[in-house]
Amino acid sequence: MHAKRTFMVVFVALVIPVIAAAVTILVPSEQPTIQQGIDIANPGDTV
User: Fold this and answer.
1) What is the pLDDT of residues 1-37, one digit of tens each?
2) 5 occurs within a structural domain
3) Which of 3, 14, 31, 44 is the most buried (most CB within 10 A)?
4) Does 4 map to a domain?
5) Which residue range(s) make up the domain with 45?
6) How far is CA 39 from CA 5, 33, 36, in A?
7) Which residues have CB under 8 Å from 9's CB, separation 6+?
8) 34 lies in a domain?
9) Is 27 exposed, middle or buried (0-12, 13-18, 19+ CB in 10 A)?
10) Distance (Å, whole) CA 8 – CA 16
11) Cα 12 to chain centroid, rounded
């Protein structure tokens, strides 16, 4: 039982920052072209 709880705590600690880090890059207000938006995007971002 303790191992399951430890796993869940570690899992949540690793997943939440990834979810929170994703951003939406707006074209053309933030980047002038779709390609430039893609070029600066990180995994999980939306262009």
Assistant:
1) 678 788 777 777 777 665 567 899 999 999 999 999 9
2) no
3) 31
4) no
5) 22-47
6) 39, 10, 5
7) none
8) yes
9) middle
10) 12
11) 14
